[in-house]
Amino acid sequence: MNIRLEKHSDLEATVVVELEKNDYTEKVESQLKKIQKTANIKGFRPGKAPLGMIQKMYGKSVLADEIQNLASEALNNYIETEKLETLGYPIGSTRVESQLDIDKSENFSFAFDLGMAPQFELNLNSKDQLENFEISVSDKEVDEDIDYARKRHAKLEDAEVSDEESIVYAEVTELNEQGETFEGGVENKPVSFVPSMIEDKNLQKQFIGVSKDVVVNGDVRKLFNDNESVISNALGLPKEGINDLSAQFSIKVTEVKSRILPELTEEYFKEVLPGEEAPKNEEEYRNRVKTNLEHYYKNEASLWLDHEIGHLIMQKHDFNLPDEFLKRWLITTKPEHYTESNIDEKYAQEREALKRRLIIDKIAAANELQATESEVIDEAKVYYAGMYRQYGLNISMGDEFLASTVMKRLEEREFVMQMSDRVIYRKAYDKVRELITLKTKNVNVEEYFNHVNKHKEAHGE
After folding, report:
1. Which one-letter DSSP state was computed for residue 289?
2. Average pLDDT of the segment spanning 216-222
């Protein structure tokens, strides 16, 4: 057996595994004898067919299997022994032709293309600076949060006419250019909305002071502020079909309900703050709301700093990847997701994720960051607690049901790896915070979101 490495560049190479007859003969013969012992061939008692007949019937398929297994095993051992840092898995070469003619030769060669991991050095130090926001909460944010909570807990009563904060129930019907019902379009679809939340001021005004059976013609997309997800859910349409909707709809009011806001009493405080010791009066309640908001924005600022760190590490580490190999690898190994027609678009996202992962791995290796068993369990609990919150369930970290769910999932190797990755990412980002310089910047809520929105606009996020 002979193995050689042919480098095409720093990022692409081919490993050629050459096999001679004495490399595989013993294994092939051993496998044929196993088949002979169990073969049930007409004219012979079970296990008594001549080896020559077994060779004639199964020889080629056994040979093909054994040389493939030998080549794969040799390839894996070579990569491990030579400590080759690869991306993806080796795939059949398009650069070097394999020699696999079983009928005409006793010597074979397997050629495997490899994508090599790029070599780069970490480039992070105290000269790199990021802003660490400390967000102050004003009476305005406290008032808005209290008003929002009161609206969520408001009681609904039938109303003759709507005001800005009423809930308007309506049926929407798509119209054609003649103002008639669009055949095959949306028809009598029930929806609901609050006038004050309509951003188009002209359309908003038309739904203030309306009563049952009033009909307003307008663009249903503006009714839901051009939010594709909301429009899709409201009309029961796929997002792809939203752009094809008519610009005019008949919006017929079917019902109007006013919200009766609850008084700020101790009973209400118990309802709005379940599981907490209820405030005794409005002042205590406002202080509690402010404290909760301060915790929320502290976490928000920390998450945003992580976002900025993500940009920083990508900006500071510019290296290439074996792009063509990785594209071919994705198409070969995941044909249900990647094809020749979509690979360029989808690979752009995969490329950024892989580069980020390589940087994180480099930070982790340089600082000997590891995920312990207890850290993986804690991360899994955070993961599931967050998922349950999305369904309106607030489960404490010490909950027995949560612990049972987590321990069951941790029996799955893939889930353990997923949680381990989350721990390593967290530790790597924390290490970056230590390596760079963080400049504290005090801002109010409005200034913070102005910064975030400008950043997202600049980066197309």
Report:
1. H
2. 94
In this model, does residue 225 exceed pLDDT 90?
yes
Q: Is the pLDDT of residue 68 over 90?
A: yes
Q: Which residues pair with 91 in a beta bridge?
A: 113
Q: Determine the Cα angle at 178 with ends 174 and 184, to 5°.
A: 35
- CA dist., res. 174 & res. 162, Å (int): 23
- In terms of Cα–Cα distance, which of 156, 159, 165 is closest to 262? 156
Rounded Cα gap, residues 61 and 57, in angstroms: 9
Q: Which listed CATH number (3.30.1330.10, 2.60.120.10, 3.30.70.20, 3.30.70.1050) goes with 2-116?
A: 3.30.70.1050
Q: pTM for this structure? A: 0.77
**Strands (DSSP E) found in 95-128:** 108-116
Please state the domain extents for the chain.
2-116, 155-260, 274-459
H helices, E strands: number in the chain: 14, 11
**How far is it, in rounded angstroms, from Cα 153 to Cα 259?**
9
- φ, ψ at 22 (rounded to 5°): -70, -10
Q: What is d(CA 95, CA 85) in angstroms, rounded to the nearest whole number? A: 20
161-205, pLDDT tens digit by residue?
999 999 999 999 999 989 999 998 999 999 999 999 999 999 999
DSSP letter, residue 261: P
Name the least confident of 2-6, 373-377, 383-387, 446-450: 383-387
In angstroms, rounded to a whole number, what is the distance separating the alpha carbons of residues 105 and 102?
A: 6
